[in-house]
Design brief:
Length: about 220
């Protein structure tokens, strides 16, 4: 049997990672959070004061940095950065870093490598268009910006981050804009992806819908 690849793409806060984690558990697939990799590189560049225009230095970083994922935990050069990569400063800078071609080329290679020989579910922006154009199941998950901001705002509240709903909405809209207008692998629906609007769907609704699509290709 061929390995199954499930691609979930869409904008920030559309519910990709929540859904992907549940599906991975349900079908015993490996979950790969591609956004977390862009977040880890962003964290490294910020913490080491590396300019986003300094491509030479960024290339060096990409060739030497060690990104590791174990279950829900993310390790950057063997340090647990799971909480840090969700901070506001990362949200504010990650889309800039993700638009750098050498960063994308490097991380796409890594994403393909760690998916090899497994049943996988990946979430991101370019899974169905660039990383795995042959994925058997492709979902483009969307929701209104206001609903996405509301979900993200609640996550920040739980983490006791000081931020207002309006700030979250603004940041989400900025990220959407950068992600969908960049030259390299912009956020867009693959022609053969199924668009699913989760604005007024429950998590169960979305999980059930995607599960049926997976059953069809199993
Ligand atoms: O969880 P959320 O949707 O907020 O973001 P994420 O999936 O962690 O991705 C963070 C950022 O990384 C996105 O806004 C994109 O700029 C970038 N990204 C990307 O360019 N390509 C991917 N496959 C995944 C993320």
């Amino acid at each position: 049997m061929n390995n199954i690849i499930v691609a979930i793409d869409g904008p920030a806060g559309s519910g990709k990672s929540t859904i992907a984690k549940i599906i991975a558990k349900k079908f015993n697939f490996t979950y790969i959070d591609t956004g977390a990799m862009y977040r880890m590189i962003t964290l490294y560049l910020l913490e080491n004061n590396i300019d986003f225009d300094d491509l030479k230095e960024i290339e060096k970083v990409l060739n030497t940095v060690n990104l590791d994922m174990q279950g829900d935990k993310f390790y950057l050069n063997n340090v647990d950065v799971t909480t840090k990569i969700r901070e506001k400063r990362i949200n504010e800078n990650v889309s800039k870093v993700a638009s750098i071609k050498i960063v994308r080329d490097n991380l796409v290679n890594l994403q393909r490598k760690i998916s090899n020989n497994k049943n996988v579910i990946l979430d991101g922006r370019d899974v169905g268009t660039v990383i795995f154009p042959n994925a058997q199941v492709k979902i483009f998950l969307i929701a209104s910006p206001e609903e996405r901001a509301r979900r993200r705002y609640n996550e920040f509240l739980e983490k006791k981050t000081e931020i207002t709903y309006d700030e979250v909405l603004k940041s989400i809209k900025e990220r959407d804009h950068i992600d969908s207008t960049r030259d390299e692998s912009p956020l867009k629906k693959a022609d053969d992806a199924i668009e699913l609007d989760s604005t007024s769907l429950t998590i169960d609704d979305v999980v059930n819908f995607i599960s049926k699509e997976i059953e069809k290709v199993k």
